[in-house]
Amino acid sequence: MFLGSGTIVEVAEARVKSLGRILKDYVAKNFSGYVIFRNDVRGVYIFIALVEGRLAACRSIEAGRVYEGAECSETAMKYLYEPEGVIEVQNAPHNLLILDATIFPLSKIERPTSLSSLLGAEVGVQRVVAAPPSPSITVPPPPAQPVTTPATQPMPKEVAVAKEVTPEKPVKELPPQPQPVPPPPPPALPKIEKPTEAEITVSSECIDPLALYMVIKSGQLLEALTSPSPYRELLEKIRNIVKERKPSYIYISGELEGATLKILYDSQSSSISITIEREGASICGNEARKELEGKSISNVKIWHVA
Predict the structure, then answer these.
(1) DSSP line for the chain
(2) CA nearest 262: which of 237, 283, 236, 233?
């Protein structure tokens, strides 16, 4: 949601340490960086920028809609003590936070909100003071050096050379030679049709958390399915999106019999990574694919990154 990213200093499950508690702790520490809340199942993502403990900017996605500034802080109020989700805290340099607030001006929080009052935090980035410009020093140009031109030398006169003219010999005409007949072209080989797109394979690894974070950060919600769908139908949707849009990544989230399903397609490897999370345990790769066979997945949402 913001372009900048920093060094991860804390990751916590919301059921263990809530978003409200983490925000209060880092506001009290005069922290500068990002506090990020993610709930993949509900499709909620909240990015809050703190500058020296001040509430500086906020962007969020809820039900496929983007909220910024004061509206975003009101959205965050609903998830301060939500038990489902993950909170990530990133330390970031001061200038990067200011750059994000400049690129996304609607995200800036410039007046007190319910969130800032609850956290006891000031708003805005008024503490940033620009350094005075350094005085310029004018260096005089070096003195011009005299230009000396070489004395002109007289050009030698052209020497006329007499060419000896030799009489032309008569050309003897030769009889016409028969032209060689080119060999017949070889018979055309039967045309072999190549597959239009590479087969999508299933990776044996779990989804890379860093790759998933980048997709969630810059991806766009493409579709939200209202009815449950089988795994084969989701695989066919991935093939169609690859063919029509040629994305870098495709991310699918859903629910499967009380578990959370995550599928991430990577165009560089033409493969998908599958992770099923249930009661703190994860199933990945072909084992996860076998569990999906013959079952329907509900609450499906599809994102893509161009």
Answers:
(1) --S---EEEEEEETTTS-HHHHHHHHHHTT--EEEEEEETTTTEEEEEEEETTEEEEEEEEETTEEEETHHHHHHHHTTTT-SSSEEEEEE--HHHHHHHHHHSGGGB--S--HHHHHHT--BS-TT--PPPPPPP-PPPPPPPPPPP-PPPPPPPPPPP-PPPP-PPPPPPPPPPPPPPPPPPPPPPPPPPPPPSSPPPEE-SSPPPHHHHHHHHHH-EEEEE-SS-EEHHHHHHHHHHHHHHH--SEEEEEEEETTEEEEEEEETTTTEEEEEEEETTEEEEHHHHHHHHTT-EEEEEEEEEE-
(2) 283
Tens of pLDDT, residues 142-191: 555 554 444 445 554 444 444 455 555 555 566 666 666 666 666 554 44
Say if CB 91 and CB 29 are below 8 A apart: no
What H or E segment, with its residue span, contains residue 221?
A: strand 220-224
Measuring CA to CA, which residue among 64, 69, 34 is closest to residue 49? 34
How far apart, in whole angstroms, are the C-alpha atoms of residue 32 and residue 218? 22
pLDDT higher for 165 or 265?
265
